[in-house]
């Protein structure tokens, strides 16, 4: 009798893992090629690691991105899910699904199963950032040879010597600049950069590191945000110059997760799950309303430009701009309308 009792307990215990810790990935799905015209030839994705919505919307620190969101761009809150960690956040943004629970047992470091991503569906993607994020999407070079990466080790002494967290982001900005400079002498690279359906992904870790080390609202944190804001402005100009202002680049800034006042993330606090996003550039539907109202939940952000969404919605949104297949593991039903097409009208614009 005792043994039967133990047996039943073991079966029940295993069943929980079998039911809840199973990969949601369905294999062997064919990507669906969209038949609409692309709204942009290229997309630049900035992920400001650890930037919470409050730091962006309720303070004037990131003045450039705020002005873009309130003028020719759109902004909103991107709601993340728990665990509010870097890996599941990036998977939701770039692959469109919420991380496989079985990744927990692998310490979020290795891909438990292969999954599709925006980068995989692009013609070419260039990514820069911390190795543990970049590797999620570019590790298997046998199938990802069109994904180019440049990564750093954030624990390297170069970055920790003087606790200056802006160095992490400076590294990324400098590398992007070098790429475009190299293109002037490297014909092969130049040809690739002139291709369509390409993505640039900048993973900016400085804010997360500053949040952990110095906590949000501190002087160091604010300096890091200002540096990111300025850096994104410069990269945008660099790219516009390279492409002779052809108006075919879409830009998206968002974050993988937020940060508590005491410098942590991982759980479901509003400061951790609410991240900001700003979308601007080619194909972004302009606000037609002449009326402008301040959003009372924020510090002087314009309500008419706001459109909140869930983090995984960003994947089909970006895929739509480039007219590339939505990554096959994406779980999102597209109900948003931020892009501008000839057939578009403002009646599609719905607040959630
Ligand atoms: Zn992170």
CATH superfamily: Alkaline Phosphatase, subunit A
Q: Identify the overall geometry.
A: globular
> Strand percentage, roughly?
5-15%
How would a textbook summarize the main sheet?
8 strands, mixed
The unreliable regions are 342-352
Which ligands occur here?
zinc ion
Which strand order does the major sheet show?
A: 4-3-5-1-6-7-2-8
Count structural domains. Answer: 1
CATH class: Alpha Beta
What is the level-2 CATH architecture name?
A: 3-Layer(aba) Sandwich
Beta-strand segment tally: 8
User: What is the CATH T-level topology?
Assistant: Alkaline Phosphatase, subunit A
Order of helix and strand elements from N to C terminus: HEHHEHHEHEHHHEHHEHEEH
**What's the number of helices?**
13
Rg result = 21 Å
Helix proportion of residues, in percent?
25-40%
Secondary-structure-derived class? alpha/beta
Cα(first) to Cα(last) distance is 55 Å
Structure description:
There is one protein chain. With 352 residues, the chain is of the alpha/beta class. It has a single domain, classed as Alkaline Phosphatase, subunit A. Helices cover 36% and strands 14% of the residues. It is built from 13 helices and eight strands. Strands 4-3-5-1-6-7-2-8 form an eight-stranded mixed beta sheet, sandwiched between helices. Helix 8 runs parallel beside helix 11 and helix 10 packs antiparallel against helix 11. The protein is globular and about 80 Å long. The C terminus is likely disordered. The site of zinc ion has 6 residues, from loops. The site of zinc ion (ZN) has 6 residues, from loops.
